[in-house]
TrEMBL record:
Binding-site list for L-aspartate: T119, N123, D124
InterPro entries for the chain: Arginosuc_syn_C, Arginosuc_syn_N, Arginosuc_synth, Arginosuc_synth_CS, Arginosuc_synth_type_1_subfam, AS_cat/multimer_dom_body, Rossmann-like_a/b/a_fold
Annotated GO CC locations: cytoplasm
Domain of life: Bacteria
Protein's organism: Cryobacterium psychrotolerans
Cellular location(s): Cytoplasm
GO BP terms in the entry: argininosuccinate metabolic process; L-arginine biosynthetic process; urea cycle
Residues given in the record as ATP binding sites: A8, Y9, S10, G11, G12, L13, D14, T15, S16, G117
Functional pathway: Amino-acid biosynthesis; L-arginine biosynthesis; L-arginine from L-ornithine and carbamoyl phosphate: step 2/3
Binding residues annotated for L-citrulline, in chain numbering: Y87, N123, R127, S175, E259, Y271
Name of the molecule in the record: Argininosuccinate synthase
């Protein structure tokens, strides 16, 4: 049997043309592998057939929506993961899952190489190849767009010459990646960072400037995971889908950022992540009630590092695994309800309660019944400020 290469297939221009390009460049048969992570917009059966029509010897589709939500998005939620404090890792979270299936499929079929449709400028090439290297170091990774100089113009010309069933054309100015957790849009007029996004860019969110009545929901968490919305039990996938609807209808989750790519380029990106932004806001506030002060402070430094590792394609690294253990430990008491009000592009917590709460009304109140002994504060301040006082005396004496 001829050697095979397993291609991460999206159904778009680059990966569709990449099937024939890989065959010509390597002489290998191409197996197309499409992973459903809730990207919507196209029937996966159509994508499966398109790969065959474009020359794939076999076309495989995997429904991984629940796995993506449970095993990839939920850890990000527990980590309150926001790269550069704003981007909830929409695309970065799906890459290790896709890479996992690339590696396992290649092993099952006896293939010695895998491929993806990334360019040499982006982050995803690193994410795919670093993940495959961690999972199956014996496999070779190929990238036809990067390695074989498959430019966009050449891809369009190749598709036309071979009558490939590709809808894209020179009139499609944007590069779009999406999954159930969000949507990423780049290139075209957005490459000028002075140009404002236009409404046509958005599909997951409604215009926040349009007047609507506020939406209020109660999100119930169990150890950091949303398990019910307005009292109705939900799976992680259902929680994301429902919050996409509620938050998206209020224009929550639009992000316009100049982003520091792993490869050293600054890139202008527009994202939509209504569920991500809303759920993180709720989760953070529940943590404020249930996690002890010093642990919460330290966790914030871990969150930043966790987001950087995932953004940089190191999902399967030892450091990321170790940080996962720390984060899971912090979530033991993150159980309770958060009331979230969404309106005009914002998601604001208006109520919180938990049987695991560290908030003590009798300590916090300034009214009668206060159990906090204020007389202890004077001595505490004396001891707390003692190092500063001693240091200041020395510094003043030296002047």
């Amino acid at each position: 049997m001829a050697e095979r290469v397993v291609l991460a297939y999206s159904g778009g221009l680059d990966t569709s043309v990449g099937i024939g390009w890989l065959k010509d460049a390597t002489g290998k048969e191409v197996v197309a592998l499409a992973i459903d992570v809730g990207q919507s917009g196209e029937d996966m059966d159509v994508i499966r057939q398109r790969a065959l029509d474009c020359g794939a010897v076999e076309s495989i589709v995997v429904d991984a929506k629940d796995e993506f939500a449970t095993d990839y998005v939920m850890p990000a939620l527990k980590a309150n993961a926001l790269y550069q404090k704003r981007y909830p890792l929409v695309s970065a979270l799906s890459r290790p899952l896709i890479a996992k299936y690339l590696a396992s499929t290649a092993k099952d079929l006896g293939a010695n190489s895998v491929a993806h449709g990334c360019t040499g400028k982006g982050n995803d090439q690193v994410r795919f190849e670093a993940a495959v290297a961690a999972l199956a170091p014996e496999l070779t990774s190929l990238a036809p767009v990067r390695d074989f100089a498959l430019t966009r113009d050449k891809a369009i010309e190749y598709a036309a010459m071979h009558n490939l069933p590709i809808a894209q054309s020179k009139k499609s100015p944007y590069s779009i990646d999406q999954n159930v957790y969000g949507r990423a849009v780049e290139t075209g007029f957005l490459e000028d960072p002075w140009n404002a996004p236009i409404e046509d860019l958005y599909t997951y969110t409604q215009d926040p400037a349009v007047t609507r009545e506020p939406t209020e929901v109660v999100i119930s968490f169990d150890q950091g995971i949303p398990v019910a919305i307005d009292g109705v039990p939900v799976t992680p996938l259902q929680a994301i889908e429902l919050m996409n609807l509620h938050a998206g209808n209020q224009g929550v989750g639009r992000i316009d950022i100049v982003e520091d790519r792993l490869v050293g380029i600054k890139s202008r990106e527009v994202y939509e992540a209504p569920a991500g932004i809303a759920l993180i806001a709720a989760h953070e506030e529940l943590e404020n009630m249930t996690i002890e002060r010093d642990l919460a402070r330290y966790k914030r430094t871990v969150e930043s590092k966790w987001a950087e590792l995932v953004y940089d394609g190191l999902w399967f690294s030892g450091l990321k695994r170790a940080l996962d253990v720390f984060i899971d430990e912090t979530q033991k008491h993150v159980t309770g309800d958060i009331r979230l009000k969404m309106h005009a592009g914002s998601a604001v917590v208006t109520g919180r309660k938990s049987t695991q709460s560290l908030y003590d009304f009798n300590l916090a109140t300034y009214d009668t019944g206060d159990t906090f002994d204020q007389s202890m504060a004077k001595g505490f301040i004396e001891l707390w400020s003692l190092p500063s006082k001693i240091s200041a005396r020395r510094d003043l004496a030296g002047k």
